[in-house]
Specification:
Elements: H1 13-34, E1 39-41, H2 43-51, E2 63-67, H3 68-81, E3 86-89, E4 102-106, E5 109-112, E6 124-133, H4 136-154, H5 161-174, H6 176-188, E7 192-194, E8 205-206, H7 207-210, E9 214-218, E10 221-225, H8 229-237, E11 255-258
Parallel strand pairs: 2-6
Antiparallel strand pairs: 1-2, 3-4, 4-6, 5-11, 6-7, 7-8, 9-10
């Protein structure tokens, strides 16, 4: 396999950021385990665990999932139990944070991302709520409507109160298809899970690929992962063991600054 060590060699800003994300993951994992809240490594983080036994060398984010029904309880636990150097961030703790997932952020650093809406936050991990959906097709249809006010609110930083109000008012009727979909899932049942409505990610994962959760090694430590990582990753990425060409080895942040 190609030598990727030049991407995140010890001492580089990227490796320092990855180590900080790993520190955050360890804390969040301990809090989840302590409070009986299931979570699992998601997306590129799970791919890195399987293919690289840790971070994808050029990756500058870390993702985990929790069930949507556990998200509020996890939020309360994190706000109460996180060390003082870290903070929980979601769209209810910061009005101009319009993303549909949460972050746990380091207070002693700063990252620059696109569409940050002027919010200051440090190195982070993302926490995605996952819920049952009827099908990949229905999620795609509902998402197309629900994303309109979400994207609008994300772009409202520095805009007038009138523009902000329009998108906030649109959020109410655009939420109705989401509520109907959730009701139908309760009535008809479903064994397919997906990332939150409004998140442009339509791949549904059968529950048998996720549960029961098991442990997987990531950066030399054990964390929760789906029961069948191979089938889970193939639903997300296809042949995930193929290394992408250099021009597609993308990073998400523009810059990372540490204050200590």
């Amino acid at each position: 396999m190609e030598d990727f060590s030049h991407y995140n060699a010890e001492g580089t800003q990227l490796r320092r950021a990855q180590n900080k994300m790993l520190d955050i993951l360890k804390i969040v994992s301990e809090i989840c385990d302590k409070n009986g809240i299931p979570y699992w490594l998601e997306g590129g983080t799970l791919l890195g665990a399987v293919r690289h036994k840790g971070f994808i060398p050029w990756d500058d984010d870390l993702d985990i999932c929790v069930l949507r029904k556990d998200m509020h309880r996890l939020k309360k636990c994190l706000i109460k139990e996180l060390p003082s150097d870290y903070e929980f961030l979601d769209r209810f703790t910061k009005w101009n944070y319009a993303r549909l997932y949460a972050k746990v952020c380091d207070k002693k650093s700063n990252v620059v991302e696109p569409d940050r809406n002027g919010i200051e936050y440090g190195v982070f991990i993302d926490i995605f709520p996952v819920e049952r959906v009827l099908s990949q097709r229905t999620k795609k249809i509902v998402d197309a409507m629900y994303r309109i006010p979400i994207k609008g609110m994300r772009g409202c930083y520095g805009k007038s109160f009138v523009i902000k109000s329009v998108f906030m008012l649109m959020y109410i009727p655009m939420s109705i298809p989401v509520l109907i979909s959730r009701l139908l899932v309760r009535i008809l049942g479903s064994k397919n899970y997906a990332l939150p409505y409004g998140k442009k990610a339509y791949n549904t994962i059968p529950s048998k690929f996720i549960f029961p959760l098991k442990k997987i090694k990531f950066e030399g430590l054990l964390f929760s992962a789906p029961d069948n990582p191979d089938k889970y990753l193939r639903r997300l990425f296809g042949d995930y063991m193929v290394i992408p060409p250099e021009e597609k080895r993308l990073v998400h942040t523009s810059s990372i600054t540490f204050f200590d």
